[in-house]
Amino acid sequence: MELTDIAIIAIAALVAGAVNSVAGGGTFFSFPALLAVGVPPVVANASNSVSLWPASLAGAWAYRRELARFSRSLPMLTVVAFAGGIAGGLLLLATSNAAFARLIPWLLLIATLLFAFSRQISGALKGFRPLPTAGNTHRIGRGGFVFQLAVSVYGGFFGAGMGILMIAALAIQGFEDMHEINALKNWLSAVIYSVAVATFTIAGAVSWPHTAVMLITGTLGGYLGARVARQLPAALIRGFVILIGAVLTIYYFGKTA
To answer: I need a surface site. Which of 172, 190, 217, 230 has the fewest CB within 10 A?
Structure first.
């Protein structure tokens, strides 16, 4: 790699890690950067997934205080995310490239709309959620686990926009604190990414020189992004999530036009 190539992917991964820790959609920055420096598409996709995995872990660590509030539900959520990630990966392997390309913008559009109107949807579903009990105000019911399974399958099938859809799913379940939502999103994203990391590494589909650079700056971006997000107003973060979702949706609709 030339110094210019290193600079391009390093900066892209830094931004991607930060964006993923706050809203999701970081792949929009990192994947095109790998293509720009000459990495083949399949290898670029594999390398991108591996490089952004630690960034999600770093983001979850930065939100560890908020994550601890879900200690009762977190073990089962983790199992559900892992199982969904495997199912989504297998589904992807059975889907043709043409069909997958046509689905991408619609998947993103649905995720963005779900989040944008999550409060209205949450209100409509209020009667179906479990009532909070004393000392357990962060309870996740059976419907929440089913919802997370669906999101995890989506994440294993199509990583881009996964964070936005996960935020939407949690918001619809009635969680309003964006920092708590981001804490869960970062941890569960890391679990789903772990499936891809194992698969691509075993398959030998990773360009390690490029990945090594992006691992460092992507992880730094994930941690710094989460640290900065904890200091920002929830309304600002919410608007940023919707903006990222809209940009991704328009971009992929344009690519498939």
So the answer is: 230
DSSP label of 130 = P
d(CA 58, CA 222): 6
In this prediction the pTM is 0.73
- Residue 133 backbone phi and psi in degrees, to 5: -110, 165
As a whole number, mean pLDDT of residues 7-17 equals 91
Beta bridge partners of 163: none
Q: What are phi and psi of 216, to 5 degrees?
A: -65, -55
What CA–CA distance (Å, rounded) separates 236 from 27?
21
Helices (H), 23-133: 27-36, 41-62, 64-67, 74-93, 97-116, 118-124
Strand partners, 133: 136
Measure the CA–CA gap between 185 and 14, rounded to whole angstroms.
19
What are 96's strand-pairing partners?
none
Q: Say which range, 151-155, 197-201, 209-213, has the weakest mean pLDDT.
A: 197-201
> Can you tell me the distance from the alpha carbon of 98 to that of 92, in angstroms, rounded to the nearest whole number?
12
Decide if pLDDT at 121 tops 60: yes
Q: How confident is the model at residue 168 (pLDDT cuts 50, 70, 90)?
A: confident
Cβ-contact 217, 11 below 8 angstroms? yes
Q: Which residue has the tokens 């590494």?
A: 201
Query: Distance between CA atoms of 59 and 64, rounded to whole angstroms?
Result: 9
The tokens describing 57, both together, are 């872990």
